[in-house]
Amino acid sequence: MMHITDGSSCTTGIGVIAETSRVDSIQISQQPKHGSASWNNSFAYPKFRYQPSSGYKGADEFVISIVGSNNVRSGPANVKVSVDVQ
After folding, report:
1. Domain containing 22 — which CATH number?
2. Pairing with 46, which of 20, 21, 29, 56 sits 20 to 30 Å away (CA)?
3. In the chain, how many domains are there?
């Protein structure tokens, strides 16, 4: 869970090892209810930014959907990012 203060934003990334993984698509499949989420359009080093709605305090979350493959498996994966705006 990420903790941020009201009026600020936060950025997080996911690790992708290019030698053993291939990412075919990334999207934010569920936007947060109390803000907005975006990503930097980089498949090699994806980073995601959360910006809470003005004046909002409390819990929020968004879901990132990734489709790709590695040496073990392939297919879609969902990552839920939880945020606490204080």
Report:
1. 2.60.40
2. 56
3. 1
pTM of the model: 0.82
Q: What string of pLDDT tens digits covers the 86 residues of the chain?
A: 777 777 788 888 776 655 667 888 899 999 999 999 999 998 878 889 999 999 999 999 999 998 888 777 788 888 889 999 98
Distance from C-alpha of 64 to C-alpha of 50, rounded to nearest angstrom:
12
Residue span of the structural domain in which 30 resides:
2-85
Shortest CA distance to 79 belongs to which of 37, 20, 16, 29? 29
